[in-house]
Write a structure and sequence with these properties.
There is one protein chain. With 246 residues, the chain is of the alpha/beta class. The chain has a 7-stranded antiparallel beta sheet with strand order 4-3-7-1-2-6-5. Strands 11-10-9-8-12-13-16 form a 7-stranded mixed beta sheet, with helices on both faces. The protein binds flavin-adenine dinucleotide and FE2/S2 (inorganic) cluster. The site of flavin-adenine dinucleotide has 21 residues, from strand 4, strand 6 and helix 2.
């Protein structure tokens, strides 16, 4: 069931410069959503911009849906200006998220790709490996540490936060042949995860991003090429088996 509803902003945190966390009241969505699914948010009360923007569900709590987002363009800049008590229009939960894990779970995130993994960790536990470029992301890493608690390993490419290396370096050191690995991050990271992990673990899933219009499978604007033909990220995904895509 997909809902289209309005909910007030119950909490807003500026996690670091250009990164925000919002908690939006939406009992209908939060009660049925599962990790890997996303919502489309109307970022302005007017019809400009016309298209809603997609955000992974980063958690559910007290009848609210949580999102963690970075400001990259006009839509996210508008969203960053909302205040506690403002009302936002949401559509969701959308897409096919992660199936319940069957093996030992390892969650691997790069940059804002950590958002759906926070929900996965909330629901299923497991270890999280989170990687950033450098100390610019310290605020985000601190916030994630506070929210995840046990089971988090931090990596930075310059060694300024956690261990030196990428999230995939961390994943390689932790993944065993009985592991199930879920990866969220830029496309290049998903491809690299496929390259280094596909022969080593039981199951390897990744969450893909694409520009979206309808979010419900109608316009085919978000399609990606897979071994099984073109697939809609919003409807067939966003979670795909990396061995089916690369
Ligand atoms: C299923 C899904 C889940 C997502 N979850 C999150 C999340 O949890 N947190 C988060 O911060 N972002 C997430 N995104 C990305 C987010 O939707 C975009 O950053 C946002 O739509 C940009 O809107 P804008 O108006 O600010 O940028 P625009 O003005 O539309 O674009 C600005 C720049 O961002 C790039 N961009 C826009 N949309 C995307 C996209 N979907 N993927 C890659 N690059 C894009 C554009 O190419 C352009 O360079 C997700 C995207 C998808 C498809
Ligand atoms: S956004 Fe319309 S089919 Fe995916």
């Amino acid at each position: 069931m997909i809902f289209e509803l309005e909910g007030f902003v119950a909490n807003k945190v500026k996690v670091m410069e250009g990164v925000y966390y919002l908690s939006i009241e939406s009992p209908s969505i939060s009660s049925v959503a599962y990790p890997g699914q996303f919502v489309l948010i109307r970022v302005s009360p007017s019809l400009d911009p016309l298209l809603r923007r997609p955000f992974s569900i980063a958690g559910v709590k007290d009848g609210c849906v949580e999102v963690l987002f970075s400001v990259v363009g006009r839509g996210t800049e508008l969203l960053s200006r909302v205040k506690i008590g403002d009302v936002l229009s949401l559509r969701g939960p959308l897409g096919k998220g992660f199936p319940a894990p069957s093996f030992e779970l390892l969650l691997v995130g790069g940059g804002m790709g950590v958002a759906p993994l926070l929900f996965a960790h909330q629901r299923y536990g497991g270890k999280i490996v989170f990687g950033v470029k450098d100390k610019v992301y310290k605020g985000l890493c601190d916030w994630i540490r506070d929210n995840v608690g046990d089971g988090l390993s931090l990596f930075s490419e310059d060694g300024s936060i956690g261990e030196r290396g990428t999230a995939l370096d961390g994943a390689l050191s932790l993944a065993c042949s009985d592991a199930e690995v879920w990866v969220c991050g830029p496309d290049a990271m998903l491809y690299e995860a496929f390259r280094v992990l596909s022969g080593k673990v039981k199951r390897l899933l990744g969450s893909f991003e694409s520009r979206m219009a309808c979010g419900i499978g109608g316009c085919y604007g978000c399609s990606i090429r897979t071994k099984g033909g073109m697939k809609r990220v919003c409807y067939d995904g966003p979670v795909f088996d990396l061995r089916e895509v690369f």
